[in-house]
Structure to design on (432 residues):
């Protein structure tokens, strides 16, 4: 049994998750002697945080509480500690919560670190430290100010731009608007007050950002910016009120920082390979991108909106990305830049699927007769004019389906064929 998904531990905020937070805190505290902890704005985050901190202290670890902050802000603070723990479920709905564990360089715990924590919990080897070794917690002051100050060092210009920002009432609500104002922008805020009752679906997808696209266009803003619950993600809207696909954002960021070697995930568009960049593909998940960037690379990201700038941190930093996209928009209209990047139709979707094993799917998918098959993450079918990726979600009981081709008709055909294969497999599994 595994506790960690592709981005930490997540689940419905209930009795089991609260007790798990205590156990994970105990396990982390046994290994790491000085830990900083932060949380997002979810209604359950404070309770989860204190449960986790209780475990740390009981294990004999020292702990600093950084309060409500974005994940990248906590990651920046973690450089002063042995490890960091963020209480968040990121882009999941408000009834979820979870834990992300971070290293001092901002990267998520790697496979061996996660396995160590899991084994300690499953082996029931957790014990409380002697009474004279139990620690007390303290408050970590100034995490947000330090993160903003470091970000501003790379952006000395005053940008006279009008920006609409939608933080979804998440952890960036009091951070990104402040940063953009410091950069000289006229800031129009939407959902920029901390609340665990998210006013929109918190994942910053095109379907969830209708109000932002409308406000950006109607207000005559130069761009719109959106975050998820913990601000490790950032997506944008151009000056025409159009949602910018993450694949094109990746190209814009790579060009902006002069990146030559880029790390992205297996589900990113094939346009990235045509932009003159050296591209390395990983499994889906920002932790895999960060792990690869430790070896080599100037920049990394996922089309879902996580952007990793390794000179700052190996944690996806939606706050820093907001400053970068403002810089790009100050030089040329985003709509012109976006239209200059080639576009291939790309369709993404998912289907709820409890307990379907990926190996059972492969025979159904092979009926599509691909030229080749990749197994970096899930099953990727490659064709002469496109590709299909089918993979199990690492955060939800769903199967993700992505298809891209050089024409709308072909992309839809590939997507529909992939969806039919998944449904046929699910139907057959239920009949067994």
């Amino acid at each position: 049994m595994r506790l960690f998904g592709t981005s930490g531990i997540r689940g419905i905020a209930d009795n089991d998750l609260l007790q798990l937070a205590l156990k994970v805190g105990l396990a982390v505290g046994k290994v790491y002697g000085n830990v900083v902890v932060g949380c997002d704005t979810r209604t359950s985050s404070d309770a989860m945080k204190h449960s986790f901190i209780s475990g740390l202290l009981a294990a004999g670890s020292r702990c600093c509480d950084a309060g409500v902050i974005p994940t990248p802000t906590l990651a920046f603070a973690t450089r002063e500690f042995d490890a960091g723990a963020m209480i968040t479920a990121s882009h999941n709905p408000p009834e979820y919560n979870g834990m992300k564990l971070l290293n001092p360089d901002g990267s998520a715990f790697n496979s061996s670190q996660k396995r160590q924590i899991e084994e300690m919990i499953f082996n029931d080897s957790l014990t409380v430290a002697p009474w004279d070794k139990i620690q007390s917690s303290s408050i970590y002051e100034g995490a947000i100010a330090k993160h903003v100050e470091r970000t501003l060092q790379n952006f000395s210009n005053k940008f006279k731009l009008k920006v609409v920002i939608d933080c979804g009432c998440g952890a960036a609500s009091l951070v990104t608007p402040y940063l953009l104002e410091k950069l000289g922008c006229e800031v129009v805020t939407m959902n920029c007050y901390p609340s665990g009752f998210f006013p929109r679906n918190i994942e910053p997808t095109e379907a969830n950002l209708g109000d932002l696209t409308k406000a950006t266009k109607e207000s005559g803003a130069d761009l719109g910016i959106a975050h998820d619950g913990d601000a490790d993600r950032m997506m944008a809207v151009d000056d025409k009120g159009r949602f910018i696909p993450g694949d094109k954002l990746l190209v814009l960021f790579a060009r902006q920082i002069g990146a030559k070697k880029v790390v992205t995930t297996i589900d990113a568009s094939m346009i990235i390979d045509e932009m003159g960049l050296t591209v390395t593909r990983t499994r889906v998940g920002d932790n895999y991108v960060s792990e690869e960037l430790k070896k080599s690379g100037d920049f990394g990201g996922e089309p879902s909106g996580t952007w990793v700038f390794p000179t700052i941190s190996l944690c996806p930093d939606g706050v820093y990305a907001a400053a970068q996209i403002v810089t790009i928009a100050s030089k040329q209209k985003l709509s012109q830049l976006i239209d200059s990047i080639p576009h291939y139709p790309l369709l993404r979707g998912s289907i709820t699927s409890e307990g379907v094993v990926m190996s059972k799917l492969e025979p159904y998918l092979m009926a599509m007769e691909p030229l080749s098959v990749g197994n970096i993450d899930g099953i990727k079918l490659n064709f002469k004019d496109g590709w299909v990726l089918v993979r199990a979600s690492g955060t939800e009981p769903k199967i993700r389906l992505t298809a891209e081709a050089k024409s709308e008709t072909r992309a839809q055909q590939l997507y529909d064929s992939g969806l039919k294969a998944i449904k046929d497999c699910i139907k057959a599994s239920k009949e067994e």
The longest helix spans residues 408-431. The radius of gyration is 22 Å. The CA atoms of residues 274 and 426 lie 36 Å apart. DSSP finds 13 helices and 19 strands in the chain.
